[in-house]
Amino acid sequence: MARQGFGSLLTDTQWQELASGGSPRSYRPDDLIMIQGDPGTTVHLIVHGIAKVLLIQPEGTEVPLAFRAAGELLGEPSIWSRQRRAATVVAASACTTRVFRSDRFRRRIQAAGLESAVWQTILRRQRESDELRAEWSVLSARRRLAAALLRLSDTLGEPIGAAVGSTPGAGEIGVLLRIALSQQELADYIGVSRTSVALEYARLKELGVIRTGRSFVAIHDRPTLAALARGERE
């Protein structure tokens, strides 16, 4: 999978030189990477795998906010401020990062002339957050789900190849989201009920747009999914 976000703005040499200065960390699925409310003293670069950003509500409910893949930054607000973590981050798959003390990471990006790449990343994430809130306010459950699957496929998707068992098999085409994302988590992510997600999933399967299995969603008809997201098809 190509580097996403911050990493996509760097050359291979810039990425390798920056990542080489961090300490390697490995996480299994569901391992904690960062905890909401903890002091922000470190920054992570995701080298491999997928991380899930969660907002923990006062009553303990976990609301997915975003998914980050290889190339992305985690904990970037701490580069300039020691504010406490605004969210919890867990590994959504086997995940490897390079971790830096925040002040050390700041000096490294300043020396390498990469501050603008960090700010571009922050602004892009703010724009994505604004777009998501707009979707919540005006779009139907069908359009929200279609838009979310498109967004996730853009950042986390990989071409479907030959596989065995419950994963997409040889001869299939499309984009694979190899991530354990329950219908309830997806419902929380797009702000609808689990029942709505189940109904829309069933419809997308009937149309041949997606196929699902344990820990994956295969998108086979992206044009139709995009038309649904735009409201051009019911």
UniProtKB/TrEMBL annotation:
Gene Ontology terms: cellular component: cytosol
InterPro entries to which the protein is assigned, alphabetical: cNMP-bd_CS, cNMP-bd_dom, cNMP-bd_dom_sf, Env_Response_Regulators, HTH_CRP, RmlC-like_jellyroll, WH_DNA-bd_sf
Protein keywords: DNA-binding, Transcription, Transcription regulation
Record has tRNA-binding as a keyword: no
UniProt domain Cyclic nucleotide-binding: residue ranges: 6-109
Residue ranges the record marks as coiled coil: none
Highest taxon, organism lineage: Bacteria
Classification of source organism: Bacteria, Bacillati, Actinomycetota, Actinomycetes, Streptosporangiales
Protein name, per record: CRP-like cAMP-binding protein
GO molecular function: DNA binding; DNA-binding transcription factor activity
The HTH crp-type domain, residue ranges: 139-223
